[in-house]
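Table S5 (text form). Sequence records supplied for joint modeling of the two-component complex.
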Amino acid sequence: MSDEAIVGGLRDGSAEAARALYERFQDAIHRLVWRVLGGDGEHDDVVQQVFENALGSIFSIRDPAALESWMIGTALNTVRRELRTRTRRRAHLASGELPEVACETSDPDRQLLIRRFYAAVRRMRPDDQIAFTLRFVEGHSLDEVALMCSCSRTTIKRRLNRARRSFERQARRDPVLDRSFEVGEE
Amino acid sequence: MNSERKLEQLGRLVADGLGEGPSVARRQLLGRRVERLPIGRRDRRILLFGFSAAAAVALVVALLLFAVPGQPDFWVGELPGFSGTWLQTEAEPVPIRFEDGTQFELQTESEGRVIARPMDVHFALGRGAVRAVIRPNQGRWTVEAGPYSVTALGTVFTVGWQSSPPVLAVRVERGSVAVRGQEIGGEGLKLSAGDELSVDGQTNEVTLKLAPTPSLAGGVPIPPAEPAPEPVKAELVTIKVEPDPRSLRSLDPRSPLHVADREARLPQTWKELHLQGRHAEAVAAALRLGLGDLLNHLDDTDLWMLSSAARTAGQADVAIQVLTALRARFGGTWRARVAAFLLGRVAFDLQGQPDVAAGWFRTYLREDPDGALAEEALGRLIDACRQAGLHREAMEAAQAYLDRHHDGAFTPLARSVLGL
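The corresponding structure-token record, covering 606 residues in total, follows.
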């Protein structure tokens, strides 16, 4: 089913179109949310919310051919809201507590590194977390990140600089991160 | 190599280890949920009209359209309800019942949703009010309002919330509650019967009106319980949420009532300082009143608060004295048990004595092996033993941890200690 047909079907209230939308974008959305949030326990709820938001506002899409970028934008907006909610509730978390991360790797050292990595990432502002993970975990270029976040290149550079400084500060206090961070110099 | 390149390299390591998403089975399950989502509505909000016959039909339709199939997590009126679904009322309150007999009542002009996880139920209050009658069990019941949370500890209390401007108000009528939030601090604040708390999120002003005398005997009649399959083993708990928190009795610090109540109970200064986040000053104020006297006369709630102030201020000696007094005077209570855990934290975090910490974590685990902090205590015991050079004990604790928690916060540490 083409993107235009998916949008048309959704506007007619077709469940088949909803299924097609999920099939079409599930890989991209799962991967995006997984990498930005670090495979945490809320992953499924956030992805469901992405599709819920997309289905809820399907009438707002102007160009059905741009469905992919619209879905990415919807996903990032959903993730941003989730991160902002978490920031407001951060005071509830025990200090020093490492985030739960569902890793594919069975290597405990790598698992620990990933948890430390996301513990440091979660200290950043929500927009900075998104830019940082898109750039360095997802491996997008600066221009791609700017496009995905619907921001100027300058804005993304500013967010990345701030995120990098925050990360480096955290890395200096964390032997696991610090060691991994310095590996590149060997 | 510059910072950018190093981060790229680290990011690749993380991405490789993290993978690209959950299992196929999880994705398929989620796909089935997505197919059933409403199209053309931004949020899954179910508008509840009360229970006139016509409205009930509309509600049935709404629930059938939006609900996820399977066993209901709760019942909205006589209809099945599911975790995560937004509920919205207009002119009449609507009851939300749980299997164990616990009941929330979403008040008029209100909006919220239940997030039900095993042994941990949250009610996220978006606006307006919710009233609940809770049957205490092994689970945890929390009302969330904006950035704040109020956790039922076996009690009758009132929570009010408005988001703009952000104002939280809590009034405890029976028992006690734990309130957490940004101005209050991560440690949280324990309120007892008769206490009233108001937090202005705009000015960051926290006002506490203390009861003249601490008492667990609240005067609020307990509403009749809903039919329950099992006899009630503990006291009933009621949470009431007022539509407008400003409708609570005046919490204005300038009001005569407020001043009179504050003066009715001494000492109060250290508490106020603590609530303002001035923990070191709070401890200093308490010490001026005479720590020995306080340790002998404060009730368990206040000792708890004073220990929190001392721990937050980094004053290990004071924290230890207060927590020790708490255990001595209120032995057998849950606070006394948790005090053992906190003594471990003080020894580990503030004093750098992992061997002492290990002893206290063991004490907590012995006194409350299935307690809320058992997993964390066991995890911290691994770390404490490891740092104290107690390798055999660290391995034993690590094995015990992995036996009970396959995917816990300390699983990587436990595996690492065991060389797995």
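Note: Chain A touches chain B through 72 residues (CB under 8 Å).
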